Amino acid sequence: MKKKVFVFFPDGVGLRNFAFTDFKSIGEQHGFDITYWNNTVFSLKDHLGFNEVKIDNHQIHPLTPIYSRARKRAELNVSQDKFNDDVYPTYKFPFNYIGVKNTLKSLYTKLLIGLYSSEKGIEKIRQKINTLERQNPKYAYCKAQLQQHKPDLIFCTTQRATQSISALLAAKDLGIPTVAFVYSWDNVPKAMQVVETDYYCVWSDHMKREVLQYYPFVKAEQVFVTGTPQFEPHYDTSLKQSRADFFKQYNLDINKKYICYSGDDETTSPLDQFYLEDLANTVRRLNAKGENLGIIYRKCPVDFTTRYDAVIHANKDIIKVLDPIWKPIGDQWNQVLPAKEDFKMLYNVCEHSEFVTNVCSSTVFDFVAHDKACIYYNYEQPQLKKGIRDIGQNYNYVHFRSMPSQDAAVFCTDKKDLDHLVKQILDGQLSNVAEGKKWYEIIVGNTPTKASENIWKAINVILN
Q1: Are residues 330 and 195 in the same domain?
Q2: Is beta strand 319-321 parallel, antiparallel or unpaired with respect to 293-298?
């Protein structure tokens, strides 16, 4: 009898990893009966022909967001005290005091943080959230779906969505094993673990150590090191286009060498457009000295600002915009969903660019998978003023401490050095690829092509 697995999408962030890769077909080869338990507005049945059970009730208890925010802040306070480290307060978003409703919510959240900033307090907050979500109509709704379809296991594609809490509680209360995939390389130290499941799949041994360090209630045997499907497409050579075909498709100049500028979201890099401008000025100066360079600008898929427009317009002879093939199907950041065609585009942007530049993005790993270098900008812009976040704090975050050395990326710490660094990389005199590959292995694990396979093996172990 085939074991029935529900692959659960509480939001759209997991689609890229678990719907558009070979994850499903690999699971079927392992003999699993796979149904997608779908809380998103994207229809997997209509678009991909997959079996799905739609969750049409998207309610969460009105107090859950407040308690979740308090839980996150309390965890960061505990980490600050436990590890005697001032990096943790920098993960906190400011409170909102605009309007009476927001002010009351913020004051109540602060009260909860004051009461519960201890390991026992955090446990109480988690229990309170679970109590609230069991009272939420969505809990009964999801429980009824599970009783009808009787899956043998729930695989939740992200650990960080409040939308998943009631559904996973319903599964637990019915005795159905639950597994959560830790979604991103920086999530564990940032207190992003919203759900408690029976088991966890993580990218690497490094991430497993983090989970055990930050969440003492999780035992080592509950955590499976699997890798992430996120990077698997970079090893799928069927996606590769010839340089001529790729340049023709996107109207690029075949005689130019292109540098990829990978845009960031506004929270991470609020002055990101000025780093693009700096690169454009560098390209102009190097072209005046005999180079023939251009820039491929690939924006952050969830950035809808117009902040780059003036720079792109002023440098339209140099900058070619290749927007990620992502489609908004709602008005929230996590309702902007990738199209499968974006794998091919990203593969070929990495393959046919000389290297990538950005502010602290994980695209360093996408490009290292193609043996390409990465420049990280790490200097202040003159436009920085009070109230604008300095990008320098990003490099102090815990996940950057995983670098085997400072040579795992090329850091540009002064605007005046950019021309020289770009020229050195182009001339083959400077590269971070060797150290970058060591860092890639620390973060992504040592079997980057086998993540989907490893997850299904873990699920098999759990079910047996």
Answers
A1: no
A2: parallel
pLDDT, tens only, 247-300: 999 999 999 999 999 999 998 999 999 999 999 999 999 999 999 999 999 999
Q: Which two tokens stand for residue 300?
A: 């952050």
| Shared-domain flag, residues 98 and 26 | no
Model-level pTM? 0.94
Do 23 and 45 lie in one domain? The reply is: yes
Residue 329: pLDDT band (50, 70, 90) is: low
- Identify the domain containing residue 22 by its residue range: 4-60+136-227+448-463
Q: What's the chain's average pLDDT?
A: 95
Segment 216-259, tens digit of pLDDT? 999 999 999 999 999 999 999 999 999 999 999 999 999 999 99
Distance CA 432, CA 354 (A): 13
> Using CA atoms, how far apart are residues 156 and 200, in angstroms rounded to an integer?
9
pLDDT on residue 152: 98
In 187-228, DSSP assigns E strands to: 199-202, 223-225
Please give the angle made by the CA atoms of 101, 105 and 109, to the nearest 5 degrees.
170
Backbone angles phi, psi at 14, to 5 degrees: -85, -10
Which pLDDT band holds residue 335 (cuts at 50, 70, 90)?
Answer: low
**Whats the size of the chain, residue-wise?**
464
Does one domain contain both 310 and 347?
yes
Number of neighbours of residue 253 by Cβ within 10 angstroms: 11
DSSP assignment of 337-383, as one string?
EE-THHHHHHHHHHHHSSEEEESS-THHHHHHTTT-EEEEE-S--TT
CB atoms within 10 A of CB 437: 16
Residue type, 134: R
The total of structural domains in the chain comes to 3
440 in the same domain as 335: yes
Nearest to 347 by CA among 236, 440, 452: 236
Strands 319-321 and 326-328: unpaired
